[in-house]
Amino acid sequence: MATFVEGPSGIREMGKHYFTMWQTLFEIDTKYVPIKPIGRGAYGVVCSSINRETNEKVAIKKINNVFENRIDATRTLRELMLLRHIRHDNVIALKDVMMPIHTKNFKDVYLVYELMDTDLHQIIKSSQPLSNDHCKYFIFQLLCGLEYLHSANILHRDLKPGNLLVNANCDLKICDFGLARTGIGSGQFMTEYVVTRWYRAPELLLCSDNYGTSIDVWSVGCIFAEILGRKPIFPGTECLNQLKLIINILGSPQEADIEFIDNVKARKYIKSLPFTRGIHLSHLYPHADPLAIDLLQKMLVFDPTKRITVVEALQHPYMSGLYDPKFIPPVQVPLTLDIDETLGEQKIRELMLNEMLYYHPEAVSAYS
Question: Which end of the chain has a smaller Cβ tally under 10 Å, C or N?
Fold first, then answer.
């Protein structure tokens, strides 16, 4: 539980109060009353809280020493900048970013999100039964959120069960946009690490440096399979092992299916692997709805040019009764968000402060 404590050196800054949770000090705005810690990772600690002004339950994520690692600082900035523009029922809402006391040398960042109960990873590994309707509703919502993101010119690039938050009535929301990029179809090269390995598309494993929305569709397919089987479909130990697992299940790709590979060595490696007919997905998931298997097969296609699109997936018969394009209009203004990966700490700090001020217009004059 959250424990109220005195501030550092016994000083209490105006508008802030202090709590400890899991040996972590939280310096938060007085309008937020923390309840309990609910998650922890390399970034820091997440706690549930109540906004006393609105009586709304929220989640507060403290990112510790955000400038200790420039890459992590850039990812945090990207999340702030993207989520300010994103409004969709199936994407997590960023409610607030707390203003620091010391704007010139702050170390920690506090993000306030809408509160969700758990994530899909926890549900999959639990003993809770998942019906076909559960599976269909989760995948439908994931595709709806992804259709919105892709229409807004955003690749998520790190879809996995742990980045899909769920509440008690099975509402699903995509989170964690630290690896996301805008600029779909721009022809830009995006060679930075993307996607946790088990959910990484073949074109990324094969070092393709020019990819598109199909990488997110592959990740959805891996998540779909994991819901059906209650375990990852391709739990590779490293990159080459990951490719072997994919080919062992999908079967050896034909010559026409590896034309997209622009790396000669990578193409040669694929050809060198022993021939396999693969395993039909209905044998892996014998209790699954045949329409679910059909959609899954269309997602887990080796050649990204032949993989089903998000819109096509939503129009698939498996989604019958759920998808109505009239109620899910595409975004009207695609985002273009370029963040220089070589930005220094001071510039990142300035840009973060600009994002914080968006949520605190009353403070703009003090920092202008």
Answer: C
